[in-house]
Amino acid sequence: MSWDIIEGKWKQFKGKAREEWGELTDDELDQAEGDRQQLEGLLQEKYGKTKAEAKEAVDSFAAPRVEYVIGSGATHKRSRPAPLFAVWIGVSRADL
């Protein structure tokens, strides 16, 4: 999954990141600006996670949010056409 999607839409994803990791402040998330390494560093610092644990936490956060990519003709990994709201937040797979 491409972190570029989240980085490019950080303002939208920031709220979900705040819900996921409540100890992170809005200022910290603003400073991270979607930078994956910075976010992983914040998780290490605030939650006492190892580097591997922080990476896994970010992977788990990102995976369902970048499953669909923006663009005309974009498809799901199972060749299902992606909806227009391709980068979605808070929608379960069952809702699609």
Q: Could you explain how this protein is built, in words?
A:
It contains 5 helices and no strands. With 96 residues, it is mainly α. The protein has one domain (3-95): Protein Yjbj, Chain: A (Orthogonal Bundle). The longest helix has 12 residues, at 36-47.
Topology (elements, then pairings):
Blueprint: H1 3-8, H2 10-20, H3 26-32, H4 36-47, H5 51-62
Helix pairs in contact: 3-4, 4-5
Brief description of this entry?
The protein has 96 residues and is an all-alpha fold. The protein has 5 helices and no strands.
Provide keyphrases for this structure.
96 residues; mainly alpha; Protein Yjbj, Chain: A; 5 helices; globular
Q: What is the chains' assembly state?
A: single chain
CATH superfamily: YjbJ
The CATH class name reads Mainly Alpha
Shape: globular
**Rg over alpha carbons:** 14 Å
The CATH topology name reads Protein Yjbj, Chain: A
Largest sheet: none
Structural class: mainly alpha
Quick one: how many beta strands? Answer: 0
Number of domains: 1
Query: What are the secondary-structure elements, in order, as H or E?
Result: HHHHH
